[in-house]
């Protein structure tokens, strides 16, 4: 006799849907990180070119030292901005993936709920006493 796998198809599909939701979230996360990195690379290239021009234009040691301080402040602000963007992308990806998993229908949860309701109805109809009596004999 062939086992009946039909009841498990819904669970298998749920697992696949969950995996695809996680994969979609991951690839969207990776895409956003790459876009942020490309934007940052362009900005840093422009920063380096501008910094070189400013260094060339500096006429004294004091001016060069002031530029160095300005560059460090600018770089730190850029780094904090970059980290805020990474955190935002990570939070959005996590929220999206969690929502996709939560919103997908888990047929096993629904089936267990139906079984619990049927059991409660069975017991509420007075069958608990006869079941207990049979179990005690």
What labels describe this entry?
rod-shaped; single chain; mainly alpha; 137 residues; 3 helices
Give a structural overview.
The chain is mainly alpha-helical. The chain contains 3 helices and no strands. Helix 1 (6-57) packs antiparallel against helix 2 (61-103). It is rod-shaped. The protein starts with 5 loop residues before the first helix and ends with a helix.
Q: Helix segment count?
A: 3
Rg over alpha carbons: 31 Å
Overall, the morphology is: rod-shaped
Biggest beta sheet summary: none
Number of strands: 0
Low-confidence stretches: none
Report the oligomer.
Answer: single chain
Mean pLDDT: 83
Order of helices and strands: HHH
The amount of helix comes to over 70%
Q: How do the strands and helices of this protein lay out in sequence?
A:
Layout: H1 6-57, H2 61-103, H3 107-136
Helix pairs in contact: 1-2
Please outline what is shown here.
The protein is mainly α and 137 residues long.
């Amino acid at each position: 006799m062939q086992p009946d796998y039909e009841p498990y198809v819904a669970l298998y599909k749920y697992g696949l849907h969950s995996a695809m939701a996680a994969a979609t979230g991951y690839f969207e996360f990776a895409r956003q990180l790459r876009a942020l990195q490309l934007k940052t690379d362009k900005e840093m290239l422009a920063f380096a070119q501008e910094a070189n021009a400013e260094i060339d234009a500096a006429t004294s040691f004091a001016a060069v030292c002031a530029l160095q301080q300005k560059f460090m402040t600018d770089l730190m602000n850029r780094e904090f901005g970059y980290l805020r963007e990474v955190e935002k992308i990570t939070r959005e990806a996590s929220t999206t993936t969690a929502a996709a998993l939560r919103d997908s229908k888990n047929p096993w949860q629904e089936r267990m709920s139906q079984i619990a309701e049927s059991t409660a109805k069975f017991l509420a109809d007075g069958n608990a006493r006869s079941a207990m009596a049979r179990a005690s004999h």
